[in-house]
Amino acid sequence: MGQKGVISPAKKLFSWVRRQSKKVKIFLGLTTALTLLVTLKLVVHDHNYFFVTAEAIHLIGLLVLIYKLTTLKTCSGLSLKTQVLTAIFLAVRLYCSFIMEADIHTVLDLITLVATLWVIYMMKFKLKSSYMADLDNMPLYYPIVPAAVIAFFVHPTTTHILINRMLWAFCVYLESVSVLPQLRLMQNVQIIEPFSAHYVFALGVARFLGCAHWIIQVYDTAGAYIYLAGRGYFWIPMVFLAEIVQTFILADFCYYYVKSVMSGQLIVRLPTPV
């Protein structure tokens, strides 16, 4: 009785939200996101912490996957293609970071890349029998080719050589859509076990923090940050757009994840695609 009473408010809340119209749900989502943004702006004063925290959360999500692969001996529900795309943009970003910055981001990217490569190795060789190849059916060139084409035309204007600037833009754009194969697989499966759900939710939180950084920067500079001198007139708007795209891609899953957790469920159930 006591345990049921503890979880019933959350169930009532999500039951009420579920009954609302699409417009009301969007309004509630935007209101929640705005509240979180205001809280972050008031609490976090060094905006660089947003990116460091986002990268750390991504790494934590990968550690959850590693725990799953080593203890449960299965990679069901995981997209190998998303891991490959992640390894690609991390490798490119690591190279660019080493050339252009060489700071804490470089260290975090190196650790995350090693963890991602280990996950790929386990999925491709050790746990191949449990890999859902037929459901992981998004071609890799779908996200790679558009990211490369946009990077060729829209990249930062800095003192670095042109190819490095294009590579930096490529990794930013590719990261924004790298989770699409994972979401496609989960839509095909519809029932997501806990460890895979934790990993994707970690990606959602990381992307929200990255998006929060850009929104707060734009707000603090009254929009001037979008057209920061020396960066090119289209580069920062495109980065801003990429962060927003990442956030919205994962927002729907994060809603169902939070709903499942607050309802005391161990698995995440996604709605049947219309």
TrEMBL record:
What's the superkingdom here?
Answer: Eukaryota
Going by the UniProt record, its keywords in alphabetical order are:
Endoplasmic reticulum, ER-Golgi transport, Membrane, Protein transport, Receptor, Transmembrane, Transmembrane helix, Transport
Instruction: State its location(s).
Output: Endoplasmic reticulum membrane
Q: How does it sit in the membrane?
A: Multi-pass membrane protein
List the InterPro entries.
ER_ret_rcpt
Any one Gene Ontology BP term: protein transport
GO CC entries: endoplasmic reticulum membrane
Q: Which GO terms describe its molecular function?
A: ER retention sequence binding
Membrane spanning stretches: 26-44, 50-70, 106-123, 135-154, 197-216, 236-258
| Xref: Pfam families | ER_lumen_recept (PF00810)
PANTHER family cross-referenced by the UniProt entry = ER LUMEN PROTEIN RETAINING RECEPTOR
- Sequence similarity: Belongs to the ERD2 family.
Name the record gives this protein: Er lumen protein-retaining receptor b
